[in-house]
Amino acid sequence: MQFIYYPRCSTCLKALKKLKEKGIDVTLRDIVNETPTQEELVCWIRQNGKGIKPFFNTSGKLYREMNLKDKINDMNEDEAALLLSQNGMLIKRPLLIDGEKIIIGYQKEIYEK
After folding, report:
1. Which of 39, 44, 70, 103 registers the highest number of CB atoms within 10 A of its CB?
2. CB–CB of 88/32 below 8 Å?
3. What CA–CA distance (Å, rounded) separates 60 from 75?
4. Whole-number Å distance between alpha carbons of 44 and 20
5. Tens digits of per-residue pLDDT, 60-84?
6. Would you list the domain boundaries of the chain?
7. Strand partners, 91
8. Residue 50 in contact with residue 80, Cβ under 8 Å?
9. Phi-psi category of 6—alpha, beta or left, where left has phi over 0 and alpha has psi -120 to 50?
């Protein structure tokens, strides 16, 4: 299981702590230093089946600076994945990847299970 996170993000650290409490082993991946590739992101977007928007960190500074709110509706999966792969801070975090299953963001009710 892969845990993609930003080490200085309190929400990511809260999610990681919950996984450790549950005894779940994860491989850590820094979203900035080991940003997911375009290919990985396209695959995850398709597996998730909910479009591209859930993968964007819509509350992030960079998202707002780039005015992406008005742009992502016109992007296809490949364009969105390319943009996300170029800057990990645009990606909603943490990402928990377990084979075909993807959990985007810290969803307390899921992490509690």
Report:
1. 44
2. yes
3. 19
4. 24
5. 999 999 999 999 999 999 999 999 9
6. 2-112
7. 56
8. no
9. beta
Query: Which are the contacts of 48, defined by CB distance < 8 A and separation ≥ 6?
Result: 54, 55, 102, 104
Pick the CATH number of 2-112 from 3.40.640.10, 1.20.1250.20, 3.40.50.970, 3.40.30.10: 3.40.30.10
Q: In the 8-state DSSP scheme, what is residue 71?
A: T
The tens digit of pLDDT for each residue in 23-37 reads 999 999 999 999 999
For residues 8-39, one letter each, b for 16 or more C-beta atoms within 10 angstroms of the residue's C-beta and e for the rest, the string is ebeebeebbeebeeeeeebeebebeeebbebe
- Is pTM beyond 0.90? Reply is yes
